[in-house]
UniProtKB/TrEMBL annotation:
Signal sequence residues: 1-29
Organism this protein belongs to: Cohaesibacter celericrescens
Keyword Signal applies: yes
Name by which UniProt lists this protein: DUF192 domain-containing protein
InterPro entries (alphabetical): DUF192 (IPR003795), Saro_0823-like_sf (IPR038695)
Length: 187
């Protein structure tokens, strides 16, 4: 009888330990990892070390919004020519939570955007050449032809789903991390 009790306690302890380990891996520590989804694929992205962030950013379709307390990974499309900037996110009816489009205007200047033919509400982040967020516009109005200005010279605009600014806590002065913002080393 004692032998069965010891086996039960040992089994229960191992099961409890497994549950604790499983729960801790399903709920990553703040600032360490984040679940991101693009289309139907989902992956856990490690943001716990500079090396992990560097590995993530090796892919040009990856971007990180760095706030005071956390790094938020995104999968983006790049709009870096007239055709892709003109079309932008027009005609789309949905976008994955951690997805977005980064517009590169090639130089710093006043940028004006609009929501013509854009069916989803967006948050817009107006970004300086070094990746610093200059200005934010939350919850744009779908299909609106009203001008949305950058509030000063910027080179980039990141469009993400409505609610991203609130969810991430991003604010002016925070940083975007992407290959475009990496300083070029001088030779």
């Amino acid at each position: 009888m004692v032998g069965h009790l010891v086996k039960f306690v040992a089994s229960f302890s191992c099961t409890l330990l497994f549950c604790v380990v499983a729960i801790s891996t399903l709920a990553p520590a703040k600032g360490q990892a984040e679940q991101i989804t693009l289309n139907s694929e989902s992956q856990l992205v490690d943001m716990s070390t500079d090396a992990a962030v560097k590995d993530f950013l090796a892919d040009p379709s990856h971007l990180v919004i760095q706030t005071a307390d956390r790094k938020h990974p995104f999968i983006i499309e790049l709009a870096d020519d007239d055709s892709s900037r003109t079309k932008g996110l027009m005609y789309r009816t949905k976008m994955a939570e951690n997805a977005g489009m980064l517009f590169d205007f090639g130089e710093s200047r006043q940028i004006n955007m609009w929501m013509k033919n854009t069916y989803i509400s967006l948050d817009m982040l107006f970004v300086r050449q070094d990746g610093t967020i200059h200005h934010l516009v939350k919850s744009t109005t779908p299909l609106s032809q009203s001008i949305i200005g950058s509030g000063g010279p910027v080179r980039y605009v990141l469009e993400v789903n409505k609610g991203t600014v609130e969810r991430t806590g991003v604010k002016p002065g925070d940083q975007l991390l992407h290959q475009l913002f990496t300083p070029k080393s001088s030779k």
